[in-house]
Amino acid sequence: MINRPAFHKSFVYAYEGIIYTLQTQRMMKFHWCAAIIVMAAALLVRLPLLSALFVLLSIFLIFAAEVMNTAVEEAVDLTTDQIHPIAKIAKDCAAGAVLICGVFAILVGVIVFWEPAILLLQGELPYVDKKLTVQTVAFTFILIILITGLPHLIWGTLNKPVTIHAFVALLFAGATMTGFITSSGVLVGMGYVLAILISTIVIWNRRTLRSAFLGVIVGCVVTLLVAVYYT
């Protein structure tokens, strides 16, 4: 009988698969950096909701296809170390799935960003009420998650089951965002106190002060820049 992993362990294994792909696959690194640029551009031109959804769909489709492509390649390499036509077909088909998603992403990018880019270059981007909407908050948090993934490319933290800097970044991003949503100093203070307390517990258990410090900087700075721009 096959022993199935615990429920929370399934998420850990899935996370490790994503990070392995991010660390070992050149195209995944490119897609990750491109996603950061696209998310930042979407915030800059204030994309409407439908366009934003297509952008998010494109990003996650490419990520998913790249992870599956890596899984197929690793499985084929484990099965045989010989050059075999069926192995080539399997790898080519997996790579083809990534290419299809990439073409879709390019088409979405051209359609979505063409008009806003022209208007922005001409200085005629129409005024949009600058307020923190659910869409803006969601894009900000996703941008933070993408940015905090970069240390996996630099330092190689595959052996960590939990991304400390990303977790801390989201905590302090939420606390910082609270200051622009409400005028209550008490709520803002409670948000930061809660973020500090939880971060302290995580740092104490994991002994990862550097990762936590990076999370604080990314979470506060990115959220602050977006919130100041939109208020």
Strand content: under 5%
CATH topology of the largest domain: Helix Hairpins
Total count of domains: 2
Give the uncertain stretches in residue-range form. Answer: none
Helix content: over 70%
State the separation between the terminal residues, measured CA to CA: 58 Å
Supply database-style keywords.
single chain, 231 residues, mainly alpha, Helix Hairpins, 9 helices
Structure, described:
- The structure is a single chain.
- The chain is mostly helical and about 230 residues long.
- The protein has 2 domains: about 1-130, Helix Hairpins, CATH 1.10.287; about 130-230.
- It is built from 9 helices and no strands.
- Helix 2 packs antiparallel against helix 5 (about 135-150).
- The protein is flat, with a radius of gyration of 20 Å.
Q: Short description, anyone?
A:
81% of the residues lie in helices and 0% in strands.
Helix-strand layout with pairing:
Elements: H1 7-24, H2 26-45, H3 49-79, H4 85-121, H5 134-148, H6 151-154, H7 164-181, H8 185-206, H9 209-230
Helix pairs in contact: 1-2, 2-3, 2-5, 3-4, 5-7, 5-9, 7-8, 7-9
